[in-house]
Structures are given as structure tokens and as C-alpha cells.
Specification:
It is a single chain. The protein is mostly helical. The chain has a domain of about 70 residues. It contains 5 helices and no strands. The longest helix is centred in the middle third of the chain and has 21 residues. It is flat, with a radius of gyration of 18 Å. It starts with 8 loop residues before the first helix and ends with a helix.
Length: about 110
């Protein structure tokens, strides 16, 4: 991901377009084909900016607000690769999964 200097709507739309094209190709193609890609990107950018403004007014710096808001509307998780092989279930995998469950439980208990 390229560094963020200008945090205006146009910059966020460009970042979102680049991200969606690379990591959400099915969503990108469907929205493009429907003629709604730009409108969806603009909406995601606007929601991101609104959330960032809330974080900024709560005292967070711009880069902190960006880190907190970007994955909610604009930098969405990558689409699953239908052709990818599933991860083999091994003792190491089970140990990692158990550690992750324990860490989530600790986080939940602290809240």
C-alpha cells in the first residue's frame, strides 16, 4: 500500500480503486459492470473520512485515525482464492489455533 499524504476523498477513492482491483477482483468487476464502481468507492471513501474525523476529534493523530478506519469501508479483506488448497490440519496448526482462541478469550475477558 502506498503512503498516504493527502487524506481527501479523491485520494481515498484512488487507494480504494487500486485495492479493490487487486484484492477484490470479483467485487470490482461486478460493480464496474453494473456501472456503480465509482459511486461505491466514493461512498466508502466518505464513510472512511467520517470515521476518521470522529477519531481525530477524539484526539487521535491522522495516521492513527487512518489505521482505525481504513479496513471498515475501504481496505476490505481479500476475497478468498477459490483455487487455493486448504491449509493442512497438523499438530502445529492445531497449536496455533488453540493459541489464537486463548488470546481472543483473554481479550474478551479484558473488555
Amino acid at each position: 500500500m502506498r503512503p498516504i499524504f493527502a487524506m481527501d476523498k479523491d485520494a481515498l477513492v484512488a487507494i480504494g480503486r487500486e485495492h479493490w482491483r487487486e484484492y477484490l477482483p470479483a467485487k470490482y468487476a461486478a460493480l464496474r459492470d453494473a456501472g456503480t464502481l465509482t459511486a461505491e468507492l466514493e461512498a466508502a471513501a466518505e464513510l472512511t473520512l467520517q470515521e476518521m474525523a470522529g477519531h481525530r476529534s477524539a484526539g487521535f493523530r491522522q495516521h492513527e485515525a487512518w489505521a482505525m478506519a481504513r479496513e471498515h469501508y475501504l481496505i476490505l479483506p481479500e476475497e478468498p482464492d477459490e483455487g487455493a488448497e486448504p491449509m493442512p490440519i497438523t499438530a502445529a496448526f492445531n497449536a496455533m489455533a488453540e493459541k489464537n482462541r486463548a488470546m481472543r478469550q483473554i481479550d474478551d475477558d479484558e473488555d
